[in-house]
Amino acid sequence: MPDPILSPDARCAPVPGRGFLRVTGPDREKFLQGLVTQDMGRVIREGIGYGAMLTPQGKLLADFLLVAEPEAVLIDVAEDLAEDLARRLVMFKLRSKAAVERVEGVVTRGIGPMPEGALADPRDPALGWRLYGVALEQGAPVDWEALRIAALVPETGAELVPGDSFVLELGFERLNGVDFRKGCYVGQEVTARMHHKTTLRRQLMVLSVAEPVPVGTPVLMEDGREAGVLYTQAGGRGLALMRVDRAEGALSVSGQPVTVVSA
User: Fold this and answer.
1) In this structure, are residues 183 and 191 in contact, taking their beta carbons and an 8 Å threshold?
2) Quick count: other Cβ atoms within 10 Å of Cβ 225?
3) What are phi and psi of 228, to 5 degrees?
4) Which of 44, 149, 161, 214 has the fewest Cβ atoms within 10 Å of its own Cβ atom?
5) DSSP state, residue 75
6) How far is Cα 235 from Cα 209, in angstroms, rounded to an integer?
């Protein structure tokens, strides 16, 4: 098939560092429904969804995009998490009529008019669209880091830490990454309890940062207590996971003042 026709106003490029799994078999939707935070019915209806697999304690194992195919579900995940995720899925398969395999793949992401076959990124409109199965490049490079900082979208390898992160603290509810009506899945009980709390203990926030600092630099209060940790930075702003009760007043990183821009 020829490549989709791109609008001259679209800017796009292949997404680096992604791995792909394909889940097939008549039980594929039911199988995944009991494991991931997203409702598979929504994935099938809308064509794409964002979700995660958690530990029984409610901590992140991997986040990913789930893409509905005619006879399968494609999982688009960080390359360095793909093998472990495949192993864990196979471990849970038991007698389900489903199969999990690593597959070769490519995905293009872009902003501007969507070409035929593309899917809107389900996390936030600012992240544009994704087109699976083809590598296209057009226009000036997009500053994806700046876009996701402005939209408060975390990323594995930076703000999202497998084995440590609680997905609600990283904004998964706002990013359409967790469904509270779908029923049970691994880690659901802890996630539901956090959802029903009055406020979360920690929250992802955007900070103004005059000069870049190393990822993982602590954000300090005036009295020296740690208020949070600063991660991805671009264009004078950065994503920080902050303690909600310490996110006010004078804050600094590596001696330079910072302020909370949005949360």
Assistant:
1) no
2) 10
3) 175, -165
4) 214
5) E
6) 9
Distance CA 173, CA 180 (A): 9
From edge to edge, which strands make up the β-sheet containing 60-69?
A: 48-54, 60-69, 72-78, 18-24, 99-103
How does DSSP classify residue 17? S
Letter string b/e over residues 135-169, b meaning 16 or more CB atoms within 10 A of that residue's CB: ebebeeebebbbbbbbbbbbbbeebbebeebbbbb
Residues 57-88 have pLDDT tens digits of 999 999 999 999 999 999 999 999 999 999 99
Per-residue pLDDT band at 19 (split at 50, 70, 90): very high
The 10 Å CB-count burial string (b at 16+, else e) for 29-66 is: bebbbebbbbbbebbeeeebbbbbbbeeebbbbbbbbb
Range with lowest mean pLDDT among 1-10, 147-156, 213-222, 241-250: 1-10
DSSP tag of 143: -
Asked whether the whole model's pTM tops 0.90, one would answer yes
Structure token pair of residue 14: 């292949």
- Report the DSSP beta bridge partners of residue 130: 109, 119
Tell me the C-alpha distance between 145 and 151, whole Å. 10
As given in the structure block, the two tokens for residue 178 are 């967790």
Tokens of 173: 């509810």
